[in-house]
Amino acid sequence: MKKELSVAFIWHFHQPNYQTQSDGIRLMPWARLHAVKDYLDMLIIIDKFPNIKLNFSIVPALIDAIEDYAEDGHDIHSKLTVTPVEELTDDDKLYILNYFFEANYENLISKNQRYNELYLKRYKNSEISINDFSLQEYSDIMLLFNLMWFDPVWKNVYPLLNELEAKGKNYTLEDRQNLIELNRVIIRQIIPSFKKYQENGRIEIITSPYNHPIMPILINSKDIKTPSLKYPLPDCKISMVTDVKEQLKLAFEKIKDTFGRYPKGVWPSEHFISQKTLDLIANIGADWVISDESVLSNSLKKEFERDFRGCYKDPYDVCSLYYYRTKQKKQINIIFRDAVVPNLIGFEYSHHDSTVSANDLFDRIKTVHDKLKNSPEKNHLLTIAMDGENSWDNYQADGGIFLERLYSLLNSDKNIKTVLISDYIQQNHKSAKLLEKVESGSWSNQEFQLWIAEPTKNLAWKYLVQTRNDLSHSIRLGELSKEQIKSAKSEIYIAEGSDWFWWYGEPNNSGQDHIFDYMFREHLKNVYNIINKPVPEYLETPLSAFIGKPFKNPAREIKPLINGLIRNNNEWQHAGCIDIPGGPILQENKLFNRIYFGNDKDNLYLRFDINKYLLESKESFKEYFSIYVYIKVYNALNENTSSVRTTNKSDTMLPVLQDGYTHEVKFALTESKKYPLQFSKSVGSGLWELTWGHNIKYVHKEIFEISIPFDDLGLQQGNSFDFFFLTGCSGVTEEIYPKDIPLSMVRP
């Protein structure tokens, strides 16, 4: 019997509601920018490949934003962009300098000469002032920021993009207005196009609860199990079942009103499901739901083994169709996604040639097909489901080269076909396997601690619960009109979204957490304003003021004990800290979780929190990693500098690699062997000399700590120095922190 493999791609489009007032401008531009960079081009790409079918998960709150932008909606960025520069206030200028360089440096900023010049001018001098930039420079910054966010595919459609890029500088108000209008031209095509492709049978559209809340937590956080808790759950009762039902109902109605039919599938927010969640989803009329393979593994009490490449040794279980019977005897189908492929697409493939990466993924899909030859069944489904927005920033041509190559290979293969999930289920429902019990869990290792059970997150949940209870109390007393109730509940539903809790506290850091905090509290404050109740005083204070966050720059001198142990006396509390952006999913590809740096009068102190997953994974240590610290001392005694010695993976020369350095500290990290630390000094002409007589101290146990005496660096009092960190594997650069401007300090 010939075995068939169907592949289901599900691209998830999700942005939270960035408005704090129903008629106000949005505080963040990401829905608009992703709309011109990702949404439509990811759809129309299949015109080139007649055999390719795709599934899209679209969060209703994002549809609201698309509809708003299609008319005359604005965010702060777009509003400033169409404002005459003569009318910009000092606050406007400061905002532009702080937020109009938020684009991928390697693929966007560095590729445009003018934008790169302005970027370096902005960040090379820590004492930069708004008065250091001319009105023309502000105009150029605003236009180039918006221009860089257009997907390259639109250059072949809209001549304006090529004209503006060729112009290079000296952009006018008319240029900026035309560019924002082109945003709207593209955005107006999104909903009609998705509807058309759906009617033509090329795509299936599914959805999530309206504002992307994590349903199991809202239903009852006490029901959620977790192997261990660093912090307790919030000391408040979370029970908002009616809100979950309403958010699901509103989502289904929104999809029908927008695209002409009810969705058959549901993407639970963060792939977080539980048996109670499945009951509610089935009751709303959904045919199927998707979750992560870790939930299946936990439900089957079975570990899915993988080989050294991360391929399943036996893909049968994950490539099977399942169903669950609710308490009401309703049946809902469940598919489970492969967890490794999204990690590769999201965080690994972008570091390599796009064609090579696409070939690798196709080979992995073929490998799954080959391993199913002995399956007792004919048909199997490999589900590749992931965020369809943020990954492409790091790819060549915004992911276009990668996707075209991948779709081309699949389009030509006679033994593998891409499918709409509802079609597959209809044709193969008889082979579905019953799951007697479904363990609660998400894509995050079956756990939920990225959204709750952390001090700041817990405080946010307490505020939400209290506001919801106060609203319910006013409703019970009959104090509110139907319109007040509807408006107040809408604010509650927005505040229930997963994004606020994701960015609060540890371990995630958006770089704009204060804005997310402001929006969350504003939505809760809106509830009290709507029901004519005093706003609680605590909602006026940022949550971080209660809990505290890591310092980005050293606050004062430190003197930690270099013993490689995590101590409880907060000896690194006042150090500077770099949070390593991680793929929230892919943990095995980042060496550090955080890097701390600080000093006293005599030493530079560094602390590297090594990723425990990597340390515990033997496969991750096929070759050893090295930590490099490059230091450039500014004084008359150090005239010699040399370039970084590792090999770069791409042809993009990051700013920190363009300079020369005076000292190099290298520490090799392996699974078991310990290598001595190497301390080298530049002797000029690109050469380094290994130095043996030094007093550097270092210990690697729970963490890697190091103290570097200023005397060994030739630093005198008042001398400044720059430094950055680099990781390498067999002499090839892996990661650089920071990538753009080195850290700077002064010996006291």
Describe this structure in words.
- This protein is an alpha/beta fold and 748 residues long.
- The chain has 24 helices and 22 strands.
- The strands form four sheets. Strands 14, 15, 16, 17, 20, 21 and 22 form a seven-stranded antiparallel β-sheet that branches. Strands 1, 2, 3, 8 and 9 form a five-stranded parallel β-sheet that branches. The protein has a five-stranded mixed β-sheet with strand order 4-5-7-6-10, with helices on both faces.
- A hairpin with a 3-residue loop joins strand 12 (592-599) and strand 13.
- The chain is globular.
- 43% of the residues are buried.
- The model is unreliable at 546-551 and 581-588 (pLDDT under 50).
Short description:
This protein is of the alpha/beta class and 748 residues long. 36% of the residues lie in helices and 17% in strands. The chain starts with a strand and ends with a strand.
Summary tags:
748 residues, alpha/beta, 7-stranded antiparallel beta sheet, globular
